[in-house]
Structures are given as C-alpha cells and as structure tokens.
Amino acid sequence: MSMKKVFVVSMAAAVITTSVAGAVSAAPAAKPAAGTSTAQVKNATLTINGNNIIVRSIVKNGETLVAVRDIINAIGAQAEVVGGATVIQLNGHKVSLQNKSKQLDVDGTKVDLNQPISIIGGTSYAALRPLVSSVGGTVSLKNGQLEISTIALIEGAENPRIAGAGHLIVSKNDEQGRNDYLVDTATGKYELLLTTEGGSDLVVSPSGTQAVYTNAEGAVYVIDLTTKASKLITSDTSIKPELVWSADESSIYFLQGDKGSVIANLNLADGSIKKLVEDKVDYKENLNVSASGKRFIYTVTTLGKVTADATNVDEDNIDIDFSANQQQLFSYNNGDGKPEAVKLTTSTDDKVFIYSADGQKAYYVSVPSGEGNASLMSVDASQKPVNVYNEHDVEQAILSGSILYVLASQDEKNSVILAIDTVTGQQSKLYTVSSDVSSIVVKGAQIAVVENGRVLVQAEGGWKSITK
C-alpha cells in the first residue's frame, strides 16, 4: 500500500537573521535579473503539512525549484547565516546550503544536487525534493498536487481510540507509567494529553469531547480533550475494571469490585454512586449499556471445578476439570418490576468482541476450539445464535451506531474490512488491506487500522500513516 504522510503546518516565523533575509528574501515574485536565469517565477500551491501554501517556484531543466525562504517559513524551521551559508534546523537535522552550490551539507554529509542553488531576484531557489528530504520530510504527488510532510510522527504508540472528528488518542508505556497522546489524524501532529501510573485506559465519550479514567487507587477523573484539564469526580477507591459512558454523557456505568460482581452508576454532576445490579454473580465482563440505561448485556465466566482431593492441597494431586470453563452472555433489564438476568448463550465456544446497542440483542465473534473460521454471531433471549458472517475468518468486529465493522482474513496476503447493517442485514466490502493489519478502530465515518505497529487512517481513498 502507498503510505502518504501529511501534517499540519507551523506558521510561526522562522528565526532568520537580517543577513538571511537578504540571502533568501521573501519578496514578491520577480523576473530574473539579467544574466542569472531565464526561468519564470510562478506562485505554486503546495500542500505543506496539511495546509495549502503558496510558494514561489521555478521549473528548471525539468526540476521544480522553490524559494528557500518560503519553505523555511512554511515548515516552521529555524535558520541563520553562518559563514555565508544558510543553516536550517528541523526534526534534529542540520542542513547547510550555499548559493550556486550543487551540494547540501546534511548532518555533516554532502548530498549532491542535480543543479546548483539558483538566485533569482535576490531570492535563493533550491530543488524541492532534496531540500525537504534533508530535514526528514517527504514529497508525494496526489491528485496532481505536491504534498509535503516534515513533522516527525510519534513512534511505538498503541491502543488507538477515535476522539472526535479528526483526532485519535494513542498510548505509550514505559517504566514510569503510561503517556497518552492526542494525535491529529489529518497531520500526525501530536501532543501529550495525560501521564498516569497504574491508571485505567482513557475511555472516550460518545461526542469525543472528553474521556474518563481511573487512577491507580480507583478514583475517577474526566479529562476535557480541548483544554486537557482533568476533573476529579469521585475519590471512591473501589475497583472499577470497566467504564462505560451513558448516552447523554451525564454518568458513567462500571463494574465494581475485584470480581466485577456489581454493576454501578456514577453521577458526574455530584459524584454519587448507585448500585444497579447486585446479584452476587461474580466475573462479569464486557459490559454493554443500552441508550436508556435500563438494559445491560455482559458476559459471565465460570471457572474450572476441583473434582478430587479438594482438601489435600499439600500433596499436589488436585484434579481440576477445566472443561467447566465457560463464558456465557446474559442480559439484564433493570426496568422490569422484578429484574433478573436472562441467559442468552449456552455454547462452549470462546466469545470475543461483545457488542449490543439496545441491551436485548448481542453480537459477538465465536471462536471455534478446532478447525474452521471464527464467525460473527448474534443472539437474543431466544438462545438461538444466528450466523451473521463467516465467509472469511473473522479477526475483529466493532459496532458503531447500527453498523457492524468486520476485519476478516481473506487469504495469506490480504484481509478485508466489511460493513454490515444490523437493521437491513446488507453487507458491503469497504477495503482490502494487508494481512499485516491486526486491528481496526471505527467511529461514525472515521476508520483507522493498526498495521505492523503503525496507526493508519483512511484518507481520500488511501491509507495514511499517522504514527511510526
């Protein structure tokens, strides 16, 4: 696949001394001085770090040369004149160029140019591609227009989550804890959002404007994704293994306790906690909450049974029947007069990627213990699983609105991303991607994939890397 990196432009003025201004002047387009060049200077529109920028350019001997000063300003580089040469610094690179020279000095290494740096109307012009690549950038052609990227991408980021239009949250872990970053999907530009040690993942709200998390002690915070300010909601230290936003973003549902036996609700206005389901059933997971907040779908895991010598633990001859390990789906209607859990499944297959929009019907990926494809299934109170998709081996499923997005392995080299309408049942193939794609992230019309540790977003029919 062709990866194109496009980033937001930094419009801050470059640090240019008076002598640099004379060497690489930003004067209006001018005709060449007599005896310098017959090339005609034109204003060209380039996509530079995500924005359309007008720069002065010439085409000379079939190669595009651009005004050095214009490019310096557009990419937000630092520059100064040292010993008659213009020295540019960006992304840890140091580039030295001199008028009429056919070489660039890039981090101490000489890079040959096809033609010398030209002077037209008192302005220096250099070949676009080597100038951009010297500071770690890329140049590509898209829809007949040159696209330039010079901002460094975040490296080694994990767990992408869509956070409103045009943004993702990604995380990096180290010995000190976890750093969460907000990434602009149009540009790859990123900023530190939160640093935690032992806290939960950030869970983004339905609107994408805020996210909730717990610290290592279990206290709950909400962070505003615009101001980056965190607000303490409750200091309650009970374990909260799963956090789920209410549809109106006024509260948070969560499983409570180290065994997840309770379903509770946290009011964001006053920090009060109310237990909604307290049926003493342990090991609840995969909590889904309906828009009304009255219905829940979740899984319950039963563990293996000790079948012999249960009391003689010192003799190391305890027999445990692991075939009893099962995970089943349940629904719970808290709006009933006498609410109770309803078992939806009875099969012994592994069940992953559990989703429900209404708290009545659930969708999940069934993973067989033996040969055969993993299948996307649906089930309701009838306890009759329905096969939704199994043409290819299902690797992941995500429910966004009324659409199920499916990542499935097509063959050894390719995977497919499908959209399945849960109302009409209509299926459509959206993309064919590399088999190296390990997961997808979807919210509304936004989609991202993880491929070989990089996060890529869909942009105008192609995949663009926003991390490396």
TrEMBL record:
Every Copper amine oxidase-like N-terminal domain range: 48-148
Position of the signal peptide: 1-21
InterPro entries: 6-blade_b-propeller_TolB-like, Cu_amine_oxidase-like_N, Mao_N_sf
Pfam families in the cross-refs: Cu_amine_oxidN1
Gene3D superfamilies the record matches: TolB, C-terminal domain
Domain of life of the source: Bacteria
Record keywords, A-Z: Signal
Membrane-spanning segments: none
Protein's UniProt name: Stalk domain-containing protein
Organism, scientific name: Paenibacillus sp. AN1007
